[in-house]
Every structure is written in C-alpha cells, then in structure tokens.
Amino acid sequence: MGLGVESKLGDSIVTTKLDHAINWGRSYSLWPMAFGTACCGIEFMAVAGSKYDLSRFGAEVVRFSPRQADLLIVAGTISYKQAPILKKIYEQMCEPKWVISMGACACSGGFYDNYTTVQGIDQIIPVDEYIAGCPPRPEAVLDAIMRIQEKAKDESILKDRVKDYKGFLDV
Amino acid sequence: MFNCDMLIDSKDLKSTIFKLKNDENYTILLDITALDYSKYPDITPSRFAVVYILRDSTFKKQISIKSFVDDNTLEIDSICDLYESANWAERETYDQYGIKFVGHPNLKRVLNHHQFLGHPLRKDYETTKGQICTQTEDLMDEMLPLLKSKGYNDEEIKDLMLLNVGPSHPASHGTIRNFVAMEGETITACITEIGYLHRGFEKSCENHTYSQIIPYTDRLNYCSAILNNIGYSKAVEEMLGIDITPRAKMIRIVIGELSRIIDHLVCNAANMVDLGGLTNFWYLFAPRDKAYELLSKLTGARLTNTYTRIGGLEFDLYDGFNEDLFDVLKDVETAIDDALSLIAHNKIFLDRTQDVGVIKADFALKNGISGPNLRAAGVAHDLRKDKPYYGYENFDFDMIIGSHGDVYDRMMCRFEEMKQSIKIIKQAMKNLPDGAINVNAPGILLPSKKDVYGNIEGLMNQFKLTFEGIHVPKGEYYSSTEAANGELGFFIVSDGSGRPYKVKCRPPCFYSLAAYSKIVEGGMLADAVVTMASMNFIAGEFDR
Q1: Residue B114: inside a domain, yes or no?
Q2: Which residue from A50, A80, A117 is facing B132, i.e. has the nearest CB?
Q3: For chain A, how are helix, strand and coil distributed in percent, rounded to 5?
Q4: Does B129 map to a domain?
Q5: In this complex, is the C-beta atom of A49 within 8 Å of any C-beta atom belonging to chain B?
Q6: pTM for this one?
Q7: B286 contact residues in A (CB cutoff 8 A)
Q8: In what helix (H) or strand (E) does residue A32 lie, and over which residues does it extend?
Q9: Predicted confidence (pLDDT) at residue B63 exceeds the cutoff of 50
C-alpha cells in the first residue's frame, strides 16, 4: 500500500482483515498519556527528547488529557493519596487502552516499602507492561512501547480487552 | 556531642523566639520539626520535643531551639504570627507527630491524606502500615473561610468559578494541586495542596543505615540528585567529625555544580514549554542528555546517581573525564546562547514574564524562600558565599541578584547562575588535587575487596559496616548546603547506633510552594502557570 502502488493496481481491490488493518493503525500511532509523578517522569521527558525520539515509534503525540490517549504511562511513585486520581485517569481513557508501569515504584513500590506508598499500581489498575529500573533507561521505555505495539497487533475488535480486574479501590 | 543550641520550656517558647527575632535579628525561620523520644536510650523530660531552626538576617548565624512538650496536652504555642513560613512547617509537624500548635489558623494535615489515622513518624507507628485513601479532599473547608475573609458573601461565592489545577496537570510538572476560585480569568483565592508524592523519606531513613540513606536522598530533588547526596553526606561527616580529602572536596564541587546546571536547564526548559516556546526545550535538553551520559559513565546512573559516600566518593574520575566535561560545558554554553537568542529580545516573552509573579524581598524572607528565587528578589544570600564549605571561598564567581523578583528575573538568574557554575567548574578542574578520594577510616568506609577476601579484619569490617552501619556519635545536628533550589538542610538525630534516630530534610521548595498561593492571588490564571514553573517546585523534594 501507499507510495503510488495503487496506480499500478488499477481498479483492483486490496483486501485485508478488519482486525489486521485496525491493529496496524493502532500499533503505530499510540497516543501516550504520561502520568509522571516523580523521577521517572523526568526520564520520560528524555525519551520524548531529541536523542531517544519517541516519534520514531509513532508515539510522540503525548497527551495530557486521558480522553485523547490510549497508552497510559505511569512514571513515578503512586502514593495512597494519589491512587484515586490514577484510577480516575485510567477510567477516563477510552477503549482500547494499554498501561505501562514505568520504574520500580510503579511496579512494586520500589524501595519505598512504607506507610505511604502503594506497593505496585497493579493493585489499582490493570497493567500490560512493566519496566524495571529506578529510573529505567530511555531504551527500556522504548522496548516496552515496542512490546505494547506487538500486543496491539493481537487485538480483535470483537472482543473486550480487560476481563475481570478488581483492585483495592473497586468496591 | 552536638546538641540543640537552646533548650527552653514550652511555656517560654514563643516569648523566646519573639526576643530572638526582634533583639538578635533571627528573622528567618528555616524549619520546624519534632522528635519522638519514646525509643531513645536516654531518659527525657517528656516524650515529644519540638525543634526550631532559625537564621539571622546577616545569614552568617543559625540557631536551633528545642522545647519539650507536655505529654498530656501535646500542645505548644504556634509561631505563625511571627514567621509566615511556620504555617506549613507546623502543619507538617502536626501531621507527622500529632503536636498541636495552639493558635495556628489552619492546623490540618499537609502530607498525608485526609482519611489517614494516626501520626506516621511516631515511633510506635508501624513503617509498612499503609492506609487506603478512597477519594480526594474537596478543600471547601479551606476555600470558604478564605473567600469570606476576602469579603465575599454566599451569593457572590456562587458566581465564582472553582477550578482544580492539578494534581495531575502538565503545568504542575509533578503532583501539586492548586484549587483556585476565579473571577473571569483572575484568581481571587488559591489553596495549594501537596502530599501526592509523599513517599515517607523520613520514616524510611529511620530503619536504614546511614549509607543506605544516600540513594533515598537522590530522589528528593531528582533533577540534581548529587547535590542532595552532598548535602546529606556533609551533614553525617560533620557529625562524625571527619574532614574529607581535598580531592574529594574538589570533585564534589565539580559534579555538584554540574548538577546545578542540569537542574537549572530543566527548570528553564520546562518554563519555556509552558510559555509555548517548545524550541527552547530541544535546545536545552540536548546538552542535558549529554551531561547525563557523562554522569552515567562516572556513576553508573543517569538520573539517580548515589555518587557520594560517607567519607568520600564512590568512584574517582575516569580517564578522559576532562574532555567529556568540557565538551558538555561547551554545549551548555551554546544552548544558553541559543535559547537566549530566541527570548532575550522577544516581545511576547518579555510581556509574559516581566512583572509577573512578583516576589518582594521581605515577603521572600518571611516565607523562608531561598536559592535562586530569593536572589531574583534582590537578596544577596547564597550559602556558598555566606557560609562557604569545601573551599567555595577560594573561587572567583558572582552571586546573581535580580531586581524585580518576577518570572523574568528568576529565569535570567538561573541562566546566569549556569554560567557562574561553568566558571567554578573550570577553576576547580584547573586546581584539581591528586590523592585519595576517600578518607582512611576503617569504621566508616568499606575496606577494599582484597582485604575482605584476604584477612579476617577486612572481612569483619565489611560485615560490621554492612549490617550495623556507621556508628555516628549521639547527638542532634543541623547542616545545610546551597542546593539548586536553595538551602537544603538535614537535621539528623543519632542515638549512637548505625541507623539514624531521625532525619529531617529541610526542603527548599516546600517553603516556596507554601508561599505560592499568596503570590498568584490577584493575577491571571495563565500567569500562575508560568510563575509555578519559574519557582521550580520538585515534588520529590517538597513531599519527600
């Protein structure tokens, strides 16, 4: 497709599966919402910066409104005080949506094993990809985005994505 | 043994501080915290004590005052009417320890959420006992009295627009929530709520050894992690009474100033993004990334470096460091020039920043604002000049002072301070002494691996230092350094064991954020966003 190949095909038709075409489009135009709270948020800025250049993966349109985004990148520590906000942000995103948990704090609470830190955001919202590191290097973030792209290629518009998730804020 | 300079009865506290302020010119309140002595080895008159740290108007002297609080009432007089900065400081002490400050206008939690029960920094509060928060506070309990005090009646309040800016808002660069009441585009009342990134730094410190705390300090102001490492290590070294080697001092200066440059780059770049000037972001972030490459070569990490050790440094400079460093500095200089060429004579930029978010000098001092924000307001205070450490007095550099205290001055001060930091680094690299980077002190620094595997003393030493930690002599001590955001202080209490009894960080931007609402009230909403960016609030620092 593209690049003027159509002219060679004349009136003929290109057929594909609807799932395939949509997944192809989705995986190369992820719109991330960076939920940056702490150090990882600063490192996410480096991922978006010119050296690591997120736009090579079609994911440079960083949205700060969850309603316009389909990839939630939780970059930083989530405290119990922050938890209801993160959940609300997640719920405001339209389907299909993916979640990357960036860094040790978001994945497991990191070394903040204490009274204020949620020990992993997967206790609040479902997570698709985890990135280790404190903070992770930008390459690791790019790797996770590529894994999300792979996942996006396996979707079907006929099936619901998130099945039965229940976090501690779902009562 | 270090102790607080004054121990006074809680009944005389307010009058004593009043006297210190008026007769001896201790006009700046640096910090307030409390101490829970319930697990302390010594017997004390009561369980809790409150500690105040003040600085005088010449910036040369500081004083710490301790006062024991009656166990039955847990009450002490508030000093909010003497110092504006006491407001949030007392709220935090109430939040963390449950000390009641009599006469405080709004004594409620500041770091922990409103559904939280108990006071986490008390010694009987279990470290890992988290408490779930199901919803965010509506803050009307603060907003209504504030609006009433400004002369609005119930009908008029209904006509105002109430708006949440944050806690998840791109302009907050973190997790600040500003709840504003607006008349058209003008902010009539603003309430700042923090604590969304409260990570329990101080509680975590109490159950780690002195060396294990260094990684936690990285994550205070994560834009300039090494400056926090230096501030903390310096405080512990002073308690231990050790003088680090000349080479270590010089390397700390070089890397510290490089961190200051990175911090200012991030602040100014983000500020200009908020103004709509995205090009500056690319210009300023390119050398920052290069500086991170250098740091990752030197320390193994880009952002959170954990570079210092108690008594020295983790690594010596690598071969070729000099070339890499000067390469970075050259790029920084170019980036500053490029950015300035876009904004220095740009009418839109000048209109958006000049006379916007003005901080007056006396307002800044009353509110405990320090660092570039204070200097931009025209106050010549820099701990590197006023209380020089590591030989800063031998360097030729200027303190950058603003005249108006507006957004423009703060940005230009940061640009100029970067140039001064470059100047310091160049002088330091020229005079870099040879020799060891660590002091020769077996009870403080880990032995070499050759000794660990080669002889029993080395093995024992390694084992003891790892499991028990460095034994810091019993005492209470406050030490501060000039970090990127201002005076970063650490108040450390040791009970003589390998873990601190208490660590209190005095975060510079906690105090500037406390003053923020008063700065933006009466201004436009769009100006409040720019003002917020120009004051460089780092969530890891003010929330800890």
Answers
A1: no
A2: A80
A3: 40, 10, 50
A4: no
A5: yes
A6: 0.89
A7: 49-51
A8: strand A32-36
A9: yes
Asked whether residue B118 is assigned to any structural domain, the reply reads no
- Percentage of residues of chain B with pLDDT beyond 90: 35
Average pLDDT, whole number, for chain B?
A: 89
Q: Where are the domains of chain A?
A: 32-153
Q: How many CB atoms lie within 10 A of CB A138?
A: 22
Closest residue by Cα to residue A46 from B536, B382, B262, B192: B262
Instruction: State CA B510 to chain mean position distance.
Output: 7
Do A85 and B168 lie within an 8 Å CB cutoff? Answer: yes
Which residues 66-125 of A are in CB contact (within 8 Å) with B?
76-77, 79-85, 89, 105, 111-119
Q: Are residues B318 and B241 in the same domain?
A: yes
Q: Above 60 in pLDDT, residue A2?
A: no
B185, B191 Cβ separation under 8 angstroms: no
Q: What is the pLDDT of residue A1?
A: 47
Per-residue confidence band for A3, with pLDDT thresholds at 50, 70 and 90: low
Count of domains forming chain B: 3
CATH classification of the domain holding B19: 3.30.460.80
- Interior CA angle at B528 toward B153 and A49, to 5°? 150
C-alpha span between B262 and B223 (Å, rounded): 7
B453 and B469 in one domain?
yes
Distance of alpha carbon B78 from the chain centroid: 23
Which CATH architecture describes the domain A32-153? Answer: 3-Layer(aba) Sandwich (3.40)
Q: Using H for helix, E for strand and C for coil, what is the string for B104-144?
A: CCCCCCCCCCCCCCCCCCCCCCCCCCCCCCCCCCCCHHHHH
Strands A71-75 and A98-102: parallel
Q: Which residues pair with A74 in a beta bridge?
A: A35, A101
**Which pLDDT band, with edges at 50, 70 and 90, does B260 fall under?**
very high
The residues, any chain, with a CB within 8 Å of residue B282's CB and separated by 6 or more, are: A49, A50
For the stretch B80-124, pLDDT in tens is 888 988 999 999 999 999 899 988 888 889 999 988 888 999 999
ipTM of the complex: 0.86
Q: What is the pLDDT of residues A34-44, one digit of tens each?
A: 888 888 888 88
